[in-house]
Amino acid sequence: MSRLVAPAKLTVSLAITGVRPDGFHELEAEMVTLDLADELVFGQPGQGLRVEAAPGSRAEGLAAGGTNLITRALAAVGREASVHVTKRIPLGAGLGGGSADAAAVLRWAGCADLDVAAELGADVPFCVVGGRARVEGIGERVTPLPFEEASFCLCLPPFGVETARVYAAWDEQPGHDGPNALSAAALAVEPRLAQWRDALGDLSGRTPVLAGSGSTWFVAGGGAGQPWLEVRGERAALVEVTAVPAGWGGN
To answer: Which helix (H) or strand (E) holds 169?
Structure first.
């Protein structure tokens, strides 16, 4: 039996530099690994995938069939195992939870091939490398950067955002305003994001940045001083995290 952690990724900055004929978006991004992580326990084949959803992870309905990234990653490396995953990274949060889990499978199988990782998803190659890196192409080109200590406050709204819908909205009206090129598109897809952005900005006195395609907003530095924000009777968790180097949590 093997236990691995699957740390979240934070997209600190994101630009879209073009769209390929096959519809994939060319990116230039800086990503860092966070100490917020799922946990995967690998056992003998035959018991399938079991998901334990931590509060707020929205993972109760996580697909356990062939579309699940854990199952796909096992198939990609030709391995079988029972997997018990404890989900702490919220689904639809823009923090790469599914990609982190797939990368953990590749590490468990001893596969460091970023081409294999890229076939599973755009964020999987970075999650395999970890630490702090420049990410280009459709995610397959990962250039490690010197690690820098950093802390962030994450605002996790009580809903997720579908990545494909955000990219489709960007295709309809491309934009590159601010550190994340997807912010306007995400707001068009899910207008409720604006109220959580504004609430985090008011609390922190800093300008929030959208994590990936959302729904998470973040500001650099910690010190939120409270566990949640409340807007119109709904709560968003506030989670203080730190950047961690490549290899954090073991391989």
So the answer is: helix 163-172
Task: Please identify which of the residues 9, 38, 87, 101 carries the catalytic annotation.
Answer: 9
Catalytic residue among 22, 35, 123, 177: 123
CATH of domain 151-244: 3.30.70.890
Q: What does each C-alpha distance from 37 to 10, 24, 47, 188 come to in angstroms? A: 12, 28, 23, 29
Q: What is the mean pLDDT of residues 137-164?
A: 96
Q: Where are the domains of the chain?
A: 2-144, 151-244
3-state secondary structure at position 23 = coil
The answer to whether 123 is a known catalytic residue is yes
Whether 87 is catalytic: no
Q: Which residue in this structure is represented by tokens 């966070």?
A: 34
Residue with tokens 């954090």: 248
pLDDT of residue 228: 94
Q: Is the peptide bond before 215 cis (omega within 30 degrees of 0)?
A: yes
How large is the average pLDDT for residues 50-76?
81
Could you name the CATH architecture of 2-144? Answer: 2-Layer Sandwich (3.30)
What pTM was estimated for this model as a whole? 0.94
